[in-house]
Amino acid sequence: MRYKKRMQSVFVILCLIMTLCGCGNVSGDTIFLSAVRDYNENSLISAIEKFEKASEKGLERYSEGELYTYLGHCHIELDMCDRAIEYYIQAVESEPDRVEYVVNLAIAYRQSGDNKTAMELYLQAMEINPDYPELNSSLGSLYVLENDPETAIYYFNRAVELDPSLAVAYGNGALAYAMAGDFEMAEEYLEMSITRGYENAEIIRERIEALR
Questions:
Q1: For the chain, what is the total number of helices (H) and then of strands (E)?
Q2: pTM
Q3: What is the DSSP string of the chain?
Q4: Over the stretch 11-68, which tens digit does the pLDDT of each residue have?
């Protein structure tokens, strides 16, 4: 009897060790959540490995679109736009009506320098949901790159009407106003971006000063 109890204790300890070592039957959902934590902590390589492992295991509570989107985000932050685009395409293909997935793909193309494809995707996203704040902000950013500040200002204003907390729209909107020669509004938008925690406010300020 004592021997049996000892063997049961050993079995429990071995199970615990296997779980801690990741050798147990961990579900894809559990690995996915761990990957999200790594992503939020900027441990991008570890996050990618776990997202891929979660995909192999299979997901129940989370969609393929969510997984592909996170993989795209990881690769964008690693300056691997081509790889990010591949994952964002898979996200869109898995759920074509998710406006945020289309916007993510458009942003990746914009960052890779393909403004034409980005514009096509933004217009596609507009057909899905024209009231998505990030879409209007991203479209404004594209018009800044296209040196069309007036159109950019329209979309930035639309973005902050839809979501007054959207710091990036105020920040890039400040640059658009400066490009249009309205430095008073540029300063106002820049201050609003700062109060909302915009990380690139100083970069925008330098660009505004260069335009004076």
A1: 12, 0
A2: 0.79
A3: -HHHHHHHHHHHHHHHHHHHTT-S---HHHHHHHHHHHHHTT-HHHHHHHHHHHHHH--SSS-HHHHHHHHHHHHHHTT-HHHHHHHHHHHHHH-TT-HHHHHHHHHHHHHTT-HHHHHHHHHHHHHH-TT-HHHHHHHHHHHHHTT-HHHHHHHHHHHHHH-TT-HHHHHHHHHHHHHTT-HHHHHHHHHHHHHTT-TTHHHHHHHHHHH-
A4: 344 344 334 444 446 788 999 999 999 999 999 999 999 999 999 999 999 999 999 9
Closest Cα partner for 126 from 155, 147, 153? 155
Nearest to 155 by CA among 174, 171, 175, 133: 133
